[in-house]
Amino acid sequence: MLEISNLIKRYGHDEPVLKGLDLSVEDNSVVAIVGASGAGKSTMLRCINRLVEPTSGSIKLNGSEIVTLRHRDLRRARRKIGMIFQGFNLIDRLTVMENVLSGRLGYVSLFQAITRRYPAADIERAFKLMERVGIAQYANKRADELSGGERQRVGVVRALMQEPEVLLADEPTASLDPRTSEQIMVLLQSLASELSLPVLINIHNVAQARAYTDRIVGLRHGTMIFDGTPADFDKQALDAIYGGIESPEDETATPLGGPESADREARHDAS
Ligand SMILES: Nc1ncnc2c1ncn2[C@@H]1O[C@H](COP(=O)(O)OP(=O)(O)OP(=O)(O)O)[C@@H](O)[C@H]1O
């Protein structure tokens, strides 16, 4: 379980960009974080893995405080936090397997990492996970030979190799076509329940947030102004979050309450 309490982040002497956020996410739960550009979504996610230093507040992962950790303890905590990126963040010239195994870097010695002598158990786990997400056949291909959707699956498996206790995804579908995006969202949803993980997804595409997550959190100017189920996420919530700003809902042309048939189809095809 992830528990964020009174999280404040101020860059320099500017106004805080996170103004006292409180958010608890249970294992198995997939939460979409939505909000206009600049609302603080990425900052929030980056505070959780301490890529950004919180100004104050508490972030607990399964009861352990993250905000006060330093040095070795911070490195240990970070390996429990899997991160999935919009641009995949793969090393192109390495194979899929090598990219996947880099998820173990927090666990193996420097010597093992440099000489790529990963334990047999890691390689076995890598194959199992690659099979699970449908990329095992690409294990020896260079990462840059894969399509966007396949690359994002590599990113997902790399994160899972960390044996994470939480998954954070920062716009994981923004570089993908709509169909592939749906498949990645379905995958994240399935993995949350299979592995009993809390999953937080920053996402601009409101229709996908509504279709593929259990809960939507809406930020506006660093304050949480909506926290509810997709069914509760109505036009009023949308207007409050994007108020006057053109919302990504318009891009999808999906009526509120309506993406279920596409959802069913994608679930059927993607898992
Ligand atoms: N390193 C930084 N230094 C100073 N200000 C920053 C820094 N990173 C982000 N900000 C500011 O913090 C605010 C929130 O940014 P953040 O990237 O968290 O928003 P976001 O909701 O993720 O936006 P987007 O959807 O465009 O990615 C913005 O006003 C941004 O300019």
UniProtKB/TrEMBL annotation:
CDD domains: ABC_PhnC_transporter. Residues 2-246 form the ABC transporter domain. This is Phosphonate transport system ATP-binding protein. Keywords: ATP-binding, Cell membrane, Membrane, Nucleotide-binding, Translocase, Transport. Pfam families: ABC_tran (PF00005). The keyword Chaperone does not apply. It is found in: Cell inner membrane. Residues 261-271 have a biased composition (Basic and acidic residues). Residues 243-271 are annotated as: Disordered. InterPro entries: AAA+_ATPase, ABC_transporter-like_ATP-bd, ABC_transporter-like_CS, ABC_transpr_PhnC, MetN_ABC_transporter-like, P-loop_NTPase. One of its GO terms (cellular component) is plasma membrane. Its main location: membrane. GO terms for molecular function: ABC-type phosphonate transporter activity; ATP binding; ATP hydrolysis activity. It is a peripheral membrane protein. It comes from Halomonas daqiaonensis. Gene3D superfamilies: P-loop containing nucleotide triphosphate hydrolases.
